[in-house]
Design brief:
Elements lengths: L2 H7 L29 H13 L9 E7 L5 E7 L2 E3 L2 E7 L3 H8 L2 E8 L4 E11 L2 H10 L2 H9 L9 H14 L12 E15 L7 E7 L5 E5 L3
Antiparallel strand pairs: 1-2, 1-5, 3-4, 4-7, 5-6, 6-7, 7-8, 8-9
The structure holds flavin mononucleotide.
Length: 229
């Protein structure tokens, strides 16, 4: 028995084989004529469908990929909190790895993995911090516990133990009991990703998927191109 076999037979339930997993995608596709005038309007349509007909769990969860100054990529999930023609907004810790990457290299990719609908949307763009006013307005809308959590965590740094985090939270809870206003942490805030291109991917049968990509022209208008699946 090889080391590999040992790993896969150690548990009594067999590990599913990903090479035989195959879903049948839908007949109905995405045509150029169906697209909205801007990618944000098209995103709004699909987002509404993901939240209603798709009944997706957290359709606002997206994978944010950044790269550091040396071009080393990293990805993580964050929640989309707002979007309009100016871009897509998420909130995070400004000392985190992603925020440090973005300070050196503002180019970013956002991927919405709407697998149950055989869809994905990929936004490629440039991230800029949201203004302090906007950050403060959103921070105040968060539950008290999340506000304290933003203070308690030095996101992405190594900590010795879970107890360190719990102790920091307990201290903050004593200082700012429920009902007391929590100040906005200076190391916390939003990023708005202004899209430069947005691809809408619709899975179709026989791997003949539809891929329509909006690309920004220098004057801010959009052209649409179709990509081979
Ligand atoms: C469903 C889900 C939603 C998340 N939402 C956020 C978020 O909105 N903001 C955030 O900073 N981290 C969020 N996280 C945690 C991040 O994935 C990540 O662990 C954290 O931001 C640190 O990333 P970094 O060290 O690469 O900067 C979320 C994780 C999951 C699984």
């Amino acid at each position: 028995m090889t080391e590999h076999d040992a790993v896969f037979t150690a548990h009594p339930d067999p590990v599913p084989d990903p090479s035989v997993m195959r879903e049948h995608y839908r007949e109905e596709g995405l045509a150029e004529a169906d697209l909205a005038a801007t990618p944000v309007q098209q995103f709004a349509r699909w987002f509404r469908q993901a939240a209603t007909e798709g009944r997706l769990y957290e359709p606002n969860a997206m994978v944010v990929s950044t790269a550091d100054a040396e071009g080393r990529p990293s990805s993580r999930t964050v929640l989309l909190k707002q979007f309009d023609e100016r871009g897509f907004v998420f909130y995070t810790n400004y000392g985190s790895r992603k925020a440090r990457d973005l300070a050196q290299n503002p180019y970013v990719s956002l991927l919405f993995p709407w697998y149950p609908m055989a869809r994905q949307v990929i936004v490629s763009g440039v991230a800029r911090r949201t203004g302090r006013e906007e950050t403060a307005a959103y921070f105040r809308s968060r539950p008290h516990g999340s506000q304290l959590g933003a203070w308690a965590s030095t996101q992405s740094s190594v900590i010795a133990a879970r107890s360190e985090l719990d102790a920091a939270y307990a201290e903050l809870e004593a200082r700012y009991p429920e009902g007391e206003q929590v100040p906005v942490p200076p190391h916390w805030g939003g990023f708005r990703v202004a899209p430069q291109s947005v691809e809408f991917w619709q899975g179709r049968d026989n791997r003949l998927h539809d891929r329509l990509r909006y690309v920004a022209r220098p004057d801010g208008s959009w052209r649409v191109e179709r990509l081979s699946p």
